[in-house]
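Researcher: Next entry in the queue.
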Amino acid sequence: MLRAGIVGLPNVGKSTLFNALTATRGAESANYPFSTTGTNVGVVNVPDARLEPLAKIAKTTKIVPATVEFVDIAGLARGASHGEGLGNQFLHHIRETEVIVHVVRCFEDENVIHVEETVNPRRDIETLNLELILADLAAVEKRRERTTKQVKVGDKAAKEEIATLDKLQAAFDEGKPARLAGLTDEEKARAYHLFLLTMKPMIYVANVAESDLSQPETDFIRQVREHAEGEGADHVVISAQLEADLVDLEPEERPQYLASLGVTETGLGKLIRSAYHTLGLLSYFTAGEKEARAWTIRQGAKAPEAAGAIHSDLERGFIRAEVIAYDDLIRVGSTAAAKEKGLMKLEGKEYVVQDGDVMLFRFNV
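Model: Structure for this entry, 365 residues:
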């Protein structure tokens, strides 16, 4: 399951967004297992309009969507890298996630005090990112002390690691995150055990007033977009308040309410699409009388790996996969018709799974 950590400075709307996103989709929320400081987790269904038509074809009423786990990490304050505001504990929670969702305040509200007294998205982004960089710098310096001793006794691997640490430190000195340090795949492998926060991909969320969603880009949003583009990162414009309003509506009323505001997609949908894009993920489907189900795998995964997402035995005993593209199946209306028209293919171990594939695995353990 994809795990995304939601971070931000205090009073940026981070927890409002988390509560709204999770409640909207009937999430299971509880105190996070390793936290005694209020960090929460919510398991959220991935919106996918393809599942319902697929279930009708499979003649099943049970639909099982893919899920994403959102972790609401308490607000990071200036000095978090040195333990301010229990920062070290919160930084640890970020290490447990695969992608960081950085919520940036892009709205004015005199009733919500900003920790820096004024709204300035560019400054806020730099403040939080600096704390993450400083935490990573401390990890690199600590590792350097240990590795230097190994270099003195002629350890070749230690010399290579020092070169990687030098590259990382140079990036940190320039205010760049580890993901922009230009590491080779080998260097990334050497740095893996450091669990660097800034090596994780980042999605920037511009949290705007509800009225700004259908308007031309504001200066606040522009600041977020420009920073994200400078990193090669995704940015998403969301109104946490709108997402909170949706919670109070029945599911069938939500599209109409969004349309009345000139909005075509929920914040949850936009955010999950961005996470899939950022991490290079896709969905394939299985469908039968028992259920229609979505599975999440990495782009470029081959058929046995896709089978392994269901159960390791399927990957270990993989023989072949019956595969049909979702659009083809919907067009012809049944798997029987798909086979008659030659649209159902038998694929082997080298088949690269495509987004929307409907698959049935043959295996023998």
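Model: The mean pLDDT is 89.
Researcher: Noted, moving on.
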